[in-house]
Design a protein that fits this description.
Helix content: 55-70%
Number of strands: 0
Structural class: mainly alpha
Distance between the termini: 48 Å
Radius of gyration: 20 Å
Strand content: under 5%
Largest sheet: none
Length: 242
């Protein structure tokens, strides 16, 4: 039995009682009332712009943690930054069987009166890949550095809003993506960081590659061989690096 039959009644009309569909129309209705230039901007932002922004935030975070705090802070933060794209990739892989099991059509398949800003979407809707990817990156950056992480989380929420605004996802697709990205990043983080921290520490001790972890202007990075203790970390500005 597919997920459509057990959890997603998608045949509700705009005036129906399904809050998921009602919120879809409320948010997507903004696109109908917006000028064409705004819709084109939202299309670019929702498809590519926010993802590019998250990459830039991650690079800025990496540049910052190399130059501030202690050597141990830098090693821990860079380990978390390496984990961030890995977690995002794992979350996307996990979403493949979820989509195949649920088999939820895109909202415009059952609701022809939506304002669809991106055409050609033929895959299933639940859960949203964009939302999963954005939230996984946001959660990973929050582990590495609180302030950059908060900025990334705001971008992730904006990504989810854009997907509904564009008419290509239901709100619950977005919420499911947020949950999946967060769960994969945080639940697997202790094991991932236990493996990555010694590797990053070894890189920090290398003459040729130490700049990847610690700016040479700060005096280089000391070796850190102990795995990062997530529970014992002091919740400071640098996330797990604190």
């Amino acid at each position: 039995m597919s997920g459509l039959a057990i959890g997603f009644p998608l045949t509700e009309s705009r005036g129906g009682t399904n809050p998921d569909v009602g919120l879809l129309y409320d948010i997507n209705g903004l696109a109908k009332d917006a000028p064409g230039w705004l819709d084109r901007t939202m299309e670019f932002v929702g498809e590519y712009g926010i993802m590019l922004g998250l990459v830039l935030v991650a690079l800025w975070c990496w540049w910052s943690v190399r130059r501030r705090g202690t050597a141990e802070d830098s090693v821990a933060a860079v380990a978390a930054l390496i984990w961030t794209p890995l977690a995002a990739g794992i979350a996307l892989l996990i979403n493949i069987p979820i989509r195949g099991f649920v088999e939820r059509p895109r909202p415009f398949v059952d609701h022809e009166d939506l304002e669809v800003l991106v055409v050609g979407k033929t895959d299933f809707s639940f859960v949203s890949d964009h939302s999963t990817l954005a939230m996984a990156i946001g959660a990973g950056l929050f582990i590495a550095h609180r302030r950059f992480g908060l900025a990334a989380l705001v971008l992730a929420v904006a990504e989810g809003f854009c997907r509904v605004y564009m008419g290509v996802h239901y709100p619950t697709d977005v919420i499911g993506g947020f949950a999946l990205g967060t769960a994969v990043t945080l639940l697997l983080a202790p094991l991932a960081l236990a493996l990555l921290t010694p590797l990053v520490s070894a890189i920090a001790g290398s003459r040729r590659l130490s700049w990847l972890v610690r700016s040479r202007r700060t005096g280089g990075a000391a070796l850190v061989t102990e795995p990062l203790d997530m529970e014992g970390s002091d919740p400071g500005e640098n996330g797990l690096a604190a």
